[in-house]
Specification:
Keywords: Ammonia transport, Membrane, Transmembrane, Transmembrane helix, Transport. Belongs to the ammonia transporter channel (TC 1.A.11.2) family. InterPro entries: Ammonium/urea_transptr, Ammonium_transpt_CS, NH4_transpt_AmtB-like_dom. The chain is an all-alpha fold and 266 residues long. It is built from nine helices and no strands. Helix 7 packs parallel to helix 9 and helix 8 packs antiparallel against helix 9. It starts with a helix and ends in a 16-residue tail after the last helix.
Length: 266
Amino acid sequence: MQCGFACLEAGSIRTKNVTNIIMKNMLDIFISCLAYWMVGYAFAYGRGNPFIGLTYWAGAGIPKNKYSHWFFQFVFAATAATIVSGAVAERCNFVAYIVYSAVISGVIYPVVSHWVWAKGGWLIDMGYTDFAGSGAVHLLGGACSLIAAMLLGPRIGRFERVEMPGHSIPLVGIGGLILITGFLAFNGGSLGTITTFDAGSSISMVISNTVVGGTSAAGIALIAGRTGLAGPKSWNFSLTLNGALTGMVGVLPFKSWIALKNYFKA
């Protein structure tokens, strides 16, 4: 997933900032790993109260059979952090980016995931369901992106009112395809096991839902672009790719037993 985000963002910006954005995406992995190991997993899945966990600091006391869960959740934390990098591309101070990445992956995402997935979390006790992180990862990342963009503010008067196109559409496409492939594991792995009796059929349903969600949304975006519903009439590559990614994110809340025939109802 991180490679996909890095390529997509690098292709969407000007050439002079490509090294910077790739560096930030790479640092997301390193910073998120350390932050999630030190305090993040404790906040997310440690024993505590309905708001926050308070054990497993720096990995202490994590059962051996939970390390795979730690790794998978660290990837989710890194994803939540890196979503914001696209919103602040070419804008955010490098040191500020490092700080925010540590805060999101070590504090904000873990606390929210405790509410949603940890035993005794207040949202899960109220019946809230988020199978693979549509809200806990992607909505959270989007909300943080909005706040970051608002804090940075507009650069009124600095540039002419003309669009600044990215330097490499092929790189955007490669990144998008990597993300599309990564979403299959991102969603399928959220089941948490492949060894139970019905795990195979459940994972196949999750992946099928993911594919149908992405392809149907991509088709709608393609038609919207060609008919002028989303800007000038054209076969819009970027719009179609974003549609595919949006569709895959949109199906994340649904559990593996959601039938394909009910996808459009959802």
